[in-house]
């Protein structure tokens, strides 16, 4: 199913649910161009795979929910949610992304992948500061595939809010190496517009399998990664998966400078 350019903004909400029929092909929902919702109109899409390809999808004060997960992993070389060169935003509604990758023979089976300069943005209308939540579960490779991350954010992409809470959680997939709970190469940030309490949390659990497995980190903070909070407290919790992981301790967080900037590789 494809969502193409909308003419104007929708004033009624959409709820779409797609599921795989036994023996049938894997359905998907794909956004292209611009899709906007006015007022309190909400968007909710559930399918085995949800993607945004050079797209802009936004709501005003209505919730925006994308779920690339129908309850169990499917047999497919696919990620749950993929944003590529796209923008997903709300100016006053909650944003919730939930993705579960398929199980296949390849690697890069990611729960949620945010790529190619994409932005996930939670704004505000001066009163509402919507929570931004992202949760992903990586798939399992039957071959030698790796990097089946729960949540993957590339170096050109951003997850940010003007002041609302941001929570990102991920679980790495099974089999082989490099299945990180969260693989962060880009920027995650919260602003200071919210007069109330807000938090920024990253929680990752590594995956992997096998006696020689390695680099199944709970959270990977690459040298290009930035985790920044103007006011909200930051909590980062990673639990390593199977095998060994080579890590460099992050730069300590100082109260006067509530940001984390991983060191450059030696």
Describe the 3D structure.
- With 266 residues, this protein is an all-beta fold.
- The protein has one domain.
- The protein contains no helices and 22 strands.
- It has strands at residues 2-3, 14-17, 28-37, 43-46, 49-59, 64-68, 81-84, 87-90, 95-100, 112-115, 119-122, 132-137, 151-153, 158-161, 166-171, 182-184, 187-190, 200-205, 219-221, 226-229, 234-239, 259-260.
- The strands form 2 sheets. Strands 1, 3, 5, 7, 8, 10, 11, 13, 14, 16, 17, 19, 20 and 22 form a 14-stranded mixed sheet that branches. Strands 2-4-6-9-12-15-18-21 form an 8-stranded parallel sheet, with no helix packed on it.
- The radius of gyration is 18 Å and the shape is globular.
Distance between the termini: 47 Å
Structural class: mainly beta
Number of helices: 0
Give the radius of gyration: 18 Å
Q: Main sheet, how many strands, which sense, barrel?
A: 14 strands, mixed
Oligomeric state of this protein: single chain
Strand content: 35-45%
**What is the number of independent domains?**
1
Instruction: Give the overall shape.
Output: globular
Count of individual beta strands: 22
| Overall pLDDT level | 87
Low-confidence stretches: 249-266
Fraction of residues in H or I helices: under 10%
Q: Helix and strand string, N-terminal first?
A: EEEEEEEEEEEEEEEEEEEEEE
């Amino acid at each position: 199913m494809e969502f193409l350019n909308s003419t104007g903004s929708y004033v009624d909400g959409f709820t779409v649910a797609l599921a795989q029929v036994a023996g049938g092909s894997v359905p998907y929902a794909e956004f292209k161009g611009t899709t906007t919702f006015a007022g309190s109109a909400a968007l909710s899409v559930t399918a085995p795979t949800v993607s945004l390809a050079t797209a802009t999808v936004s709501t005003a004060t209505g919730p925006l929910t994308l779920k690339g997960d129908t309850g169990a992993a499917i047999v497919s070389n696919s990620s749950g949610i993929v944003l590529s060169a796209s923008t997903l935003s709300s100016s006053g509604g909650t944003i919730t992304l939930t993705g579960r990758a398929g199980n296949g023979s390849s690697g890069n089976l990611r729960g949620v992948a945010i790529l190619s300069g994409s932005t996930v943005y939670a704004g505000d209308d001066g009163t509402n500061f919507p929570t931004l939540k992202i949760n992903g579960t990586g798939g399992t490779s039957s071959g030698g595939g790796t990097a089946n991350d729960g949540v993957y954010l590339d170096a050109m992409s951003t997850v940010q809010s003007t002041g609302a809470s941001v929570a990102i959680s991920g679980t790495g997939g099974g089999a082989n190496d490099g299945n990180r709970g969260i693989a962060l190469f880009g920027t995650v940030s919260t602003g200071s517009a919210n007069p109330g309490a807000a938090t920024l949390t990253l929680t990752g659990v590594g995956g992997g399998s096998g006696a020689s497995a390695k680099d199944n980190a709970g959270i990977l903070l690459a040298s290009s990664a930035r985790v920044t909070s103007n006011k909200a407290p930051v909590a980062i919790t990673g639990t390593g998966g199977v095998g060994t992981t080579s890590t460099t301790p992050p730069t300590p967080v100082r109260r006067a400078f509530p940001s984390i900037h991983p060191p450059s590789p030696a």
